[in-house]
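At this stage, I needed to go through a protein sequence along with its fold in token form, as given directly below:
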Amino acid sequence: MKRIKYESLSLIFIFLLAFTSCAAQTNYWDFELNKNWKIKIDPEKNGFEKKWFEKIDEVGLQEIEVPSFWENEIGFEFDGWVWYFNTFSIPSNLEKVAVKCDAIDDDAIIWINGKEVGRHTGYSESFYFDITDYIRLGDNVITILVEDHGGPGGIYKPIRVSEYSVSEDLLKTKYSDMNARHSVKWINEGIIYEIYPRVFSKEGNFKGITNRLEQLNQLGVTILWLMPINPIGEIKRKGGLGSPYSVRDFYGINSEYGTPADLKELVSKAHNLGLKVIIDVVLNHSAWDNPLANDHPDWYTKNESGKIIPPNSDWMDVADFNYESIELRKYMIEMLKYWISEFDIDGFRCDVSELVPTEFWEEARKELDEIKTIFMLSEGTLPEHHLSAFDMTYSWNVYDNFSGILARVKKPSMITEVIKTEKFMFPKNSLRMRFNENHDKPRAAGFFGNDGAVITSAIIFSLPGVPLIHNGQEIGEMEYSSLFEKGEIDWSKLDGDNKLFRFYQDLISFRKRNSSLVYGSFDPIDFGDEILAYIRSNQENHIISIYNFSNTVKTVDLNFLPEKFKALKPNFNNSFGKKYRIDEIRMGRPANKLIELEQFGFILLELK
């Protein structure tokens, strides 16, 4: 869930300000674009038609500084299109120049001197576009169209124009030379399953989950993530039942879910089946009627008049915590310890973890590790979270490319570029959670279509990282479940032969029996612009994954693998896929090295 606190921007950018860019370190020309911006709100979304990227429409322009969210500057909440305009000067002939954005919320199109240089989808991840062919000596105009889909929007992290030699100059961080914390086997090999107790069953409670544990075990998932189980605030609540992320009692259990005994039974029976259980915790804010607001008002963020405030204008149902309070930190650590000691919980998914200081998480992790081995999942993308506090962060960068690839407006190779970029940005062996849907995003089957949901699921299970299944995804649920109302997954779809459920069973089984999909290296393979392909390798085996995103049948010839893989032969006894067939002999080449893939066809295949 994209949740950025205006008042905490300085905390988020500490590492950016403390450590200058690689360009600066190598004496490349570098220019920060953090001042003198002008914006124009485009509620009718007609600026593209009016070609504002070629000539600025001066009417209604407002000045704004970057990084920031535009809600802070314009004084009201706005979702949609906002145009950004600025200028910069190129002092001399430079060999290679790029515009680099550390993050934009949500999507962006960038023009230099009226010419489009690139498009980026998704917030939170840094990106760059080469602009060498678009700049001129002296003054240049940069125009950025930012589209926000909900919540705060804007250029909320630094942006710069820099000379560079290779992409590593722009993307490399100080963390890429460090090692991520070591995670235990059950985390590395995990299959995460997200459960919203309110909608998972007709009962909408813990017993409804307990009754289906055997089904989840048969599916093959290994880690159950329960969305927040605490009592929900009444004051300013959203919808009829309120958001589970508005917590009224950090030590309490939502009565609609059951009793402490019900939760203990759920955890115990899950453990008996070999399943781990983690719970969602919300440490950035509380409900307005949480007793802490009255008992400890000094633990909260306040405005100039001394009133407690929400984190931003979109989250009016919650009050923002101020982690400068040492007592607040102590309280939260003791609360986390309570859930482990009292209920034998195996870890936590930490909501909007970027908005809570990293040093707090590091202190908390140290104390929690003294109780038992746990799993800490950060709903964030900060590289430093991997060093000691968290086992895993969210991989929004993969998800954000899926829709463009499926629509054929982006090349499938964007996925391999994402993995390459991660190596520059994150500590070595960092674990990322891969997904094609979650509770913040539309259902994959509804948003991507059935074929799109299936092929993207195969990708997230074959990339480096740990895959997530969102409850109901395995039976093809189409409708998005509101956080604020009662819903129900239609488990009657399992009464017959549910092919999609069996697909996920087989996909999970294939991943489990091929260790290279968990621990292996990652080598992209070039089979053309419309094919995504890569090989995962370790000492035990090699798995090649091939995906066809064209609208026609494609033939892939395994005779043309890179030299280091040419001696390997396909083992179709260890394979998994959809919409493919082995081609007949062609031009004297072995038949078992020619694979035909239909549109959205794919294969995961062992090479020996």
Q: What stands out?
A: The chain has a mean pLDDT of 93. Residues 211 and 266 are 9 Å apart (CA to CA).
